[in-house]
Amino acid sequence: MTGQLPRTVIEPNNPRLNVSRNASLPHSPGIRAGEYIFLSGMGPVDPVTGGRNLGPIADQIRQTLQNMEHMLTSAGSGLDRIVKINIVLADIQDYDEMNRIWREFFSVDPPTRTTCALQLSNGNGVEIECIALSL
Amino acid sequence: MLEYNNMNEVYREFFPADPPARTVCGAKLSGGSKIEIECVALA
């Protein structure tokens, strides 16, 4: 290999979804490293108001995956280019419901995935991070 | 998860510009640790 792999910050086109910037948090929405894209954990942020959508878990997961799609599209990638997803639920009892929503977004050749239940910030019922390929 | 704000305060000292992507969760840790951190980096 010649030289360093480039490392650049990537941000959503919709500034309302730039949670770390809006809340002055010390992390980037995503980092591109060569042809790989690493996204920070994302939650159910409303793309119109920038506030949290803390409704039913199905809505939270749908919103988070739509936000993830926006982030990836902003970086020249997409949901179909995701390699690995880590999904954290606040309550593992939401596992079946999560899979139901999952199938709406990943009907063919879904990404690898790990699921667990942990304590989340901001009252989120779900937080999702991923590693994807650029197009 | 109650340590979230304390964590961010210290975190800022180390990543003042273009910080890495990140996910934070609260969990039980081994050895009595209050924090555990892993990363992916470029050479």
Write the layout of secondary structure elements.
The complex is a heterodimer of chains A (135) and B (43).
Chain A: E1 7-10, H1 19-22, E2 30-33, E3 36-42, H2 57-74, E4 82-89, H3 95-105, E5 112-117, E6 126-133
Chain B: H1 4-14
Q: What does this molecule look like?
A:
Chain A is an alpha+beta fold. Chain A has one domain: 60s Ribosomal Protein L30, Chain: A (2-Layer Sandwich), CATH 3.30.1330.40. Chain A has 3 helices and 6 strands. Chain A has a 6-stranded mixed beta sheet with strand order 1-2-3-6-4-5, with helices on one face. In chain A, 33% of the residues are buried. The model of chain A has no long low-confidence stretch (mean pLDDT 96). With 43 residues, chain B is mainly alpha-helical. Chain B has one domain. Chain B starts with a helix and ends in a 29-residue tail after the last helix.
How many DSSP E strands of chain B?
Answer: 0
Helix content of chain B: 25-40%
SSE string of chain A, helix = H, strand = E? EHEEHEHEE
Strand content of chain B: under 5%
Under CATH at level 1, the class of chain A stands as: Alpha Beta
Beta-strand share of residues of chain A: 25-35%
The number of domains of chain B:
1
Question: Whole-number radius of gyration of chain B?
Answer: 12 Å
* Unreliable stretches covering 5 or more consecutive residues of chain B: none
Biggest beta sheet summary of chain B: none
Biggest β-sheet of chain A: count, sense, barrel?
A: 6 strands, mixed
Task: Note the overall shape of chain B.
Answer: globular
Report the CATH topology name of chain A. Answer: 60s Ribosomal Protein L30, Chain: A
Number of beta-strand segments of chain A: 6
Sheet with most strands: strand arrangement of chain A: 1-2-3-6-4-5
The CATH architecture of chain A comes to 2-Layer Sandwich
